[in-house]
Amino acid sequence: MKNKLSLIFWMASGFYGLTNAQGAEHEHGMTGNSTGSAPTVGIPSSQMGMEVVNQSLVQPPFVPVHEQSVGKQKPKVIHVDLSIEEKKFVIAPAKDDKPAVETWGMFYRATNPDYVSTNPGPTIVVHQNDVVEVHLINPTDNLFAHNIDFHGATGAMGGGSISLVSPGEEVTFRFLASKAGTFIYHCAPGGLHIPSHVVSGQSGVLVVLPRDGLRNQHGKPVAYDRMYVISEQDVYVPTQVAENVAQHEVAIQPLMKTLTPTYVVMNGSVGALTGEHALRAKVGEKILFVHAQANMSTDGHLIGGHADLFWPGGSFGNKPEIDFESWNVPAGDAIAMLYEFREPGLYAFVNHNLIKAVLFGAKAEVNVEGKWDSKLMTIVNPVGAIKQ
Fold it and tell me: What's the CA gap between 122 and 54, in Å, rounded?
């Protein structure tokens, strides 16, 4: 009964847009006239006998355990299990005399029970020419149909046109990770559902590493000590918390049309990566930051540091730029930048539209331990009263 009600709402809301119901039982497709053959069903002969590895997904900003270089190892099938959760959550915690702000979100999550869903969804890490096998589950108690569009995939709307699942359905599909880089994945179920699901949190990052690892500007191998994924997201919050996620989607439509978000957050909520939740590093460590924004362009900056290496568009196939002070993240993109921390202390990773950083919440912090290097910075005269 619930599935029927959700389908009625879906169609009555007038946004069925890009999706058509075709065929006897159901076949999900996108609008437009197809002039080619349909995607095949089954495992291609070229993938028969490939080793299948189940990737254990973890909570961002952290990433799954992985090798940075796999050399001449044969490509593998990397299997991931993703579920979708529609839930109410706290976008801004209580502060001073202001109460916590609640709203509704839609999120990709790992299937292990202790995983806490938020934006971004779990990061998937593979190597170029690996095959990504995605098992996507839409639990029965959800209201909406959902799918997944991988910007790192080729064909079928990034997988979106073959992965639309109504509540109580699941799908498994594969794609070749043919291009090395950092890529967004997000929900694209049709019409106005696309932006509303994305700004409600339904996106994540796919990292496709070169098989021989990363290279610096001279073409020499470069390794990182840690990888952190920071997802920046514009969020639109109605003044009244809706009774359910379907009512929430209707309520945010006029807010989205203003293109003025209520919050711009990093990793799901205000303060998610600051204070006691700040990222950690040590002097001398090289950190690979992946900075993503699924819906709105942004400009990142590490206050007190730089991008030693910067891959525009996250394209690892290109030679990285060096010594950038700030970097652009186009809408629907994820970039990669590497920095070796040289001084201890607290660093701010911000959207350098400082209005968004300070007033909207687009800020993360990195707490760095180690010994101070006076060659890089020193105090000549400490702060004190002006001498006459």
Answer: 14
Tell me the per-residue pLDDT of 33-79, one tens digit each, with 9 for 90 and over: 456 677 888 888 889 899 999 999 999 999 999 999 999 999 999 99
Helix, strand or coil, per DSSP, at residue 198 = helix
* Residue from 171, 159, 168, 270 nearest 204 by CA: 159
| pLDDT digits 0-9 by tens, 231-283 | 999 999 999 999 999 999 999 999 999 999 999 999 999 999 999 999 999 99
- Fill in the DSSP letter of residue 83: E
Architecture of domain 2-22+51-209: Sandwich (2.60)
The second-level CATH assignment, the architecture, of 227-369 is Sandwich (2.60)
Do domains 2-22+51-209 and 227-369 share one topology? The answer is yes
At residue 269, φ and ψ (nearest 5 deg) are -160, 165
Distances 237 to 104, 119, 266, 279 between C-alpha atoms, Å: 8, 15, 16, 27
Structure tokens at 8: 């009625």
